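User: I'm new to structure prediction. If I give you an amino acid sequence, what do you actually give back? Let's try with this one:
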Amino acid sequence: MSAEIDPFQLEVIRHSFDAVAEDMSLTLMRTAHSGIVRDSLDFSTSICDALGQPLAQGICTPMQLGSFYDAMRRLIRDYAGRISPGDVFIANDPYEAAGQHLPDIYVATPVFDGDRIVAWSTTIAHHSDVGGIVAGSNALGAEEIYQEGLRLPIVKFVEAGRRNQALWDVIAINVRTPDKVLGDLQAQMAACMSGEREMKALFARYGTDTVLRYADHLHDYTERLTRAELREIPEGTYHFTDHIDGLGANPEPVVLQVAVTIRDGSALVDWEGTSPQVKGGINPSFPFTKACAYTAFRSILKADLPTCHGFARAIEVRAPLGSLLNPTFPAPCGARGITGYRMIDCLLGALASAVPDRVTADTSGGSTLPTIAGYRDGKAFVFCETFMGTWGGTSAHDGQSGVPHMGANQSNVPIEMIESDYPIRIERYGLVPDTGGPGRYRGGLSLTREYRVLNDEAILNIRSDKRRFPPHGLFGGGTGAPSLNLINPDAENRLLPVLMTEVEKLRRGDVYRHIMAGGGGYGDPLDRDPADVLADVIEEKVSLGHARDAYGVVVLPGRPPCVDDAATQALRARRRAEATGAGA
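Assistant: Good question. You get back a string of structure tokens that encode the predicted 3D arrangement of the chain. For your 584 residues, that looks like this:
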């Protein structure tokens, strides 16, 4: 470490950056108008240096971790010499602004010291609607980005403190929920102002040049720390193949194929062999593809790594141009989140061979994104949420249930908030027994949520996955239960696709039930402690029949139930003998 760098002051300034980014997150959450931002927490905040390199990020959405840099570099390039104090920039387009998908809108403002830019205060939030052919703007059936909604290149939303009123008016007239969209944009601006204010206070306290010197060093320090962590992973190339079920009523599987090469403190993520881009809204922009790779690696590294750009320097990401993960214009991107989750799952599948104790068996596949929309009293309503989630088993414990996917630290909207804001009643919300993949450590259980429509008419759009290709287990663990989308399950019980390319028309009283996939199991189910199986039976996570069939554990009913040790030992011995004989 340079003699000019005090390690104690480095830690103070690093955590000051973190505190600024977290304060921005709290400001955005508390001032947001829509449930998708306020309650689901589908947003991110970041402080960047003058070059657009992130110095810190709020806690919300790791999949957006690596996305700020590309967008900021484009902004700085396009507006060189034309940036003033009081400017606020806005953008969302994946092709013209290095964005992610149209509902994710960037809002950023420069931080000045005198006449020079010394930092950037930046936010990204998922908006309830940005127009397009489907309410909520996640049109899985879109064949080109023009069908997905309002495209915004990098433009000034506010110039030198004065609103670009024409742009505000254009946005308001092109979205179904202008009050929520404009309200959330103002929440993003409030978060940016918070970041600007706190960064100026930090510069005033320590001196601008001192803070900037430590910011530069933080990138270098993080790069060295990341490379040291990567050197602890056995060198080699690790492969894995995963799938997205496919689009519509007659889905064709979409293949994700990755090769991860670890060598000399660096990682290369190569997506050669992945399916070509598709005519459907699941194509992620390349900045998002990179962000997902960074997320997967951060989850397996042990050190307390700063969330700055230095981390990304040690990881190279490649994807063929024109492939699903690096699409060319005008490929639609609206529901690209499902592909992001699958990229992370696929990367962890590859890394399981290298660091088996640091990964989980397959998860429920990320969030399901149901959208229920319509008109009430002549005014549009658009309900959407990122419904999470279940993890697979690990080398040390069962998979967790009711938690977010690591790609998005988001939250299920509370029932009371849904019912107070929308003509929807939640009639069921809980865990589903016998759905976790069997293993020495069981996968987390499926979650289910049931929505009853209370409006005369509504439409339903669903982004989900993991039915044809349910969550896989690791090292002998079983698969989790597949996902289901059902209409009026207690009557017609009609099954809907996992990725709907056409909306479902609903009427008052119709019920939509979603059952999320269960997590995969880790290790041989016959090695699970019978006491753990019994505990699952008592807690109604596992039925008596499933205990016997999946784990070879005979549980005698009673108050309380108990394990028949002799019968269990005999059944497991017979199962192991059958497996050995089958293998021979």
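You can read the tokens as a compact description of the fold. Here is one thing that stands out. The chain has a mean pLDDT of 95.
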